[in-house]
Amino acid sequence: MVQVRFDEELQQGLQEALIRILPAGWRMALRSEDRASDSRVDAYLDLTSPRGERIQACVEFKSRAEPAEVVRLVPWLQQCGSAILVAPELGPRAREILNRASISWLEPDGDCRVALGSLFIERLTRDRHRRPQGAPETRYVADLFSGGPLRVVRWLLIEPHRSWTLKDMAGRTGLTLGFVSRVFKTLARDAYMDRARGDNRVRDRDALLDAWASAPRPKEGVSERVATVPSTENLLQSIRDSSTPSPYAITAEAAADRIAPFARYSRVEMYSGDVAGWDRSLALTPVPRGGNLVLIQPTDAGVFDGAFERDGLRLVSRPQLYVDLVRRGGAAAEAAVFMRERGELWPQ
């Protein structure tokens, strides 16, 4: 009875929302499906345009619509032809899944994206990162793309074909088993991971990578330097020959050029926590801007996870490189697309 009552509340909310948002001249009727029937449809929405176009859509009511549940619903909703999912709150990942599947969705007191026949209505608020209503805070992590959770995400994308146990991931990241379990649960909730005992796998590596690239970038210390060398190749050779013991990893265009050459570049960017050491080793001159070497002091030591050697130089992992390129925009973002299209993100 509780679920029936909740569906009735959502149905009333859908009707009131449509009254507010439908363009002038459109008519609607909402028909509840008899629960004694064999149909899985909660209701049918009938729309009539000012020109007489008739549109019918199946309506699915959900008290909670976590991404993993939405993924399971998508095949059935697509079989309906036109469908709309109605829930009190839909997070960014659930919206992304529905948009990709061309399924309409609506929050009675919030946002919506309704694309049915010739009708298209989209209303989006600025707050796109709300916690799903009723989700327990202690079970999930708040942000997958910073701190410890990002170390897990990064390793999943570095080795997207493998199966992970909690112990495996804890060993790679240095995190506790309990914390890794929370990250895995969050990834499964958001439909980025399939979970089974001792067998946790990335479900949608492309969506996970894109979500990371679109997340806020960390606040890192950036120091621009000038090295008195004729070209970036000479600068890279100086880095190869350097005896500086501190770890480093080259990123951005200089790294992409070692994997999938795309365009000429004029500076080298690399992560390192020892700016003073590189200043001494390469006789660098600090400048406020316009340097040919950019030293990035990472707030997350995970940027070095999965780093590998190419042409005698240490490069960041391919997923980290892709994210860095996308966030820089312009020609760097184009280089990221080129690298992805060439199949260099996850070489077999």
Description:
The protein has 348 residues and is an alpha+beta fold. The protein folds into 3 domains: 2-123, 3-Layer(aba) Sandwich (Trna Endonuclease, Chain: A, domain 1); 147-214, Arc Repressor Mutant, subunit A (Orthogonal Bundle); 221-341, Beta Polymerase, domain 2, CATH 3.30.460. Helices cover 39% and strands 20% of the residues. It contains 12 helices and 16 strands. The chain has helices at 2-21, 67-79, 92-100, 147-158, 166-173, 177-189, 205-214, 232-241, 252-259, 275-282, 318-328, 330-341, and strands spanning 27-32, 43-48, 54-61, 83-86, 104-106, 112-116, 119-123, 193-194, 201-202, 221-226, 248-251, 268-272, 285-286, 293-297, 308-310, 313-315. The strands form 4 sheets. A 7-stranded mixed β-sheet has the order 1-2-3-4-5-6-7, with helices on both faces. A 5-stranded mixed β-sheet has the order 11-12-14-10-13. Helix 2 (67-79) runs parallel beside helix 3 (92-100), helix 5 (166-173) crosses helix 6 (177-189) and helix 11 (318-328) packs antiparallel against helix 12 (330-341). The longest helix has 20 residues, at 2-21. It is elongated, with a radius of gyration of 25 Å. The model is unreliable at 128-138 (pLDDT under 50).
